[in-house]
Amino acid sequence: MRKAIRILAKTLLFTLATLLLLGAAGYVYLYVLPKGPDVSEVKPLEEGKDSFVMMAYTHNERKSIRVHTYKPSTWKDGDQLVMVMHGGGRNGDDYRDAWVELAEENNLLVVAPEFENKFAHITTNDYQEGNLFTFFGTANPKEEWAYTVVENIFDHVKSTNGITNDSYALFGHSAGGQFIHRMVMLMPEARISTAVAANAGFYTLPDDKLAFPYGMKNTDTEVAENLPNAYQKRLIVLLGELDNDPSLGTFRTTEQAMAQGGHRLARGSYFFQANQTLAQEKGWPLNWSIDTVPQVGHNYREMSAHAVKWLVE
Q1: Whole-number Å distance between alpha carbons of 40 and 168
Q2: Do 172 and 25 share a structural domain?
Q3: Helix (H) or strand (E) run with residue 54 in it
Q4: Which of the four pLDDT bands, split at 50, 70 and 90, describes residue 17?
Q5: φ, ψ at 109 (rounded to 5°)
Q6: Share of the chain above pLDDT 90, in %
Q7: I want to staple 200 with a disulfide (CB 3.0 to 4.6 A). Which of 9, 70, 173, 177 is the partner?
Q8: Residue 243 contacts by C-beta under 8 Å, 6 or more apart in sequence?
């Protein structure tokens, strides 16, 4: 009996040690070792399609990020700049390409960051949830939030191209829609002129008793402090009339997510109504809108085409 207990104890200790070792190795790989492609030469953007790689953070060189761009020949300083946020496929080049014709027609400088992650199929914290927390649940500094990276990209594009614009428009679809509405709520000081969050899979509700990413608890952001400023930003919750099929794309089915609705169309309406109700109760002005695109489902190209009208008004 004692021998069996000793064997069991050794097995448990070995298992625990192995898990701790794997956890430590995983943490070092994800959050200590340098990540991303090689930084490119700093130079002005080419007309047409282009891309560059820059350091994502300003306080260390641990992570780089690739940014895809499109610049019409007619674009000049002061014209509209649009940040385009990709979906869960992390395909910034495809999203940039979807905006090429729109950019030519509306004279838009398109900037599409690519939040590359080899483990994107199992983790969402680093992108659509803003990188507020590591995969292990520990808090990241605000300097490493994905939202801060967008601000850093804007500064980089301005400084390397002699651009004086003091704001940028923002569009994101699916995971990008998740990214955008959370950025507006959690970083209202960002230099966003208009944000369009399209077809998000689920939302962060204006509730500081509900744990993030379903609510704002644990984000060190008080609803009463942040939301009045967030509500002053121009956010459009853009929904597809036919985006009611949960089998398309990655659709979260946790209890908290399902409480928002059974599909993306319902969840977007639920999110907007929750914020509208809170704003009315508190007497806070709300500069947000909701728009539903007829006969369109979970399609980023068609949603992009509809979003333009909100960005060039």
Answers
A1: 23
A2: no
A3: strand 48-55
A4: low
A5: -85, 115
A6: 80
A7: 177
A8: 199, 263, 264, 265, 296, 297, 298
Q: Nearest to residue 133, comparing CAs of 22, 220, 21, 26?
A: 220
Structure token pair of residue 269: 């309406």
pLDDT of residue 151 exceeding 70: yes
pLDDT of residue 241: 97
**β pairing state of 109-114 and 64-71:** antiparallel
Overall domain count for the chain: 2
The string of pLDDT tens digits covering residues 243-265 is 999 988 889 999 999 999 999 99
Residues 292 and 202 in one domain: yes
Q: Read off the pLDDT of residues 197-223 as tens digits, 9 standing for 90 and up.
A: 999 999 999 999 999 999 999 997 777
Domain boundaries, position 18: 1-33
Residues 55 and 28 in one domain: no
Q: Let me know whether 211 and 284 are in one domain.
A: yes
- 183's CB contacts (< 8 A; 6+ apart) are 130, 147, 150, 170, 190, 192, 195
Judge whether 196 and 172 are in contact, CB under 8 Å: yes
Helix (H) or strand (E) holding 24: helix 2-31
For the sheet with 234-240, list strands across it.
48-55, 64-71, 109-114, 81-85, 168-173, 192-198, 234-240, 288-293
Torsion of Cα atoms, 249 then 255 then 260 then 262, to 10°: 50
Same domain, 143 and 253: yes
Q: Are 75 and 84 in contact (CB under 8 A)?
A: no
